[in-house]
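My main concern about presentation is that the manuscript never shows what a single data entry looks like. For the editor and my fellow referees, an illustration may be useful. For illustration, here is how one protein appears when written out as sequence plus C-alpha cells:

***
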Amino acid sequence: MAAVTEEWHTPKGPYKLVTVNNAPERAEVVIGRVARDLADRYTIEYVGNCLGKDEVEATVAALKPDLLWADVPVMDQFCASMWTLEESDEMRATARRVVPHVVTHAIPFGLQVNNGPDAVVAHLKEAIPKLLG
C-alpha cells in the first residue's frame, strides 16, 4: 500500500495592504473577502485606506504597506474615472518613493459599478498570485 503524504503549506506573508478608495467601507469588505478566500496561500492584513492621492504619502510612510491597491483606470480605457491616469501614476510613484518594495495594483475602473463586488473579488484573487508569486 502506497503511503499518502500530506503537503502542508504555510501561507506567504504577512502582507500589509493599504487601499486608495473613496468608499473605504466597500474596500474593507472586498479585501476581507479576498483575504479569507486566499488565507491558505497568503496572509493579507488590511491596515488602512487613503481617501485620495493627498493621503498616500503620509499613510504609506506611517503604515509601511507591502501592497497598495487603488480603483484607478487601466490603460485609460474610460473617459471618466475615480482617479485620472496621471493621478494613479502619481500615487504609485509616491508610494514607491516612500516604500520602494511596495507592490501596486490598479483595479479596472468601473469593475465594481458595472459588475459588482464579486467581480472585484474574482479580479483580485486572479491578480494576487501574479503579483506575489
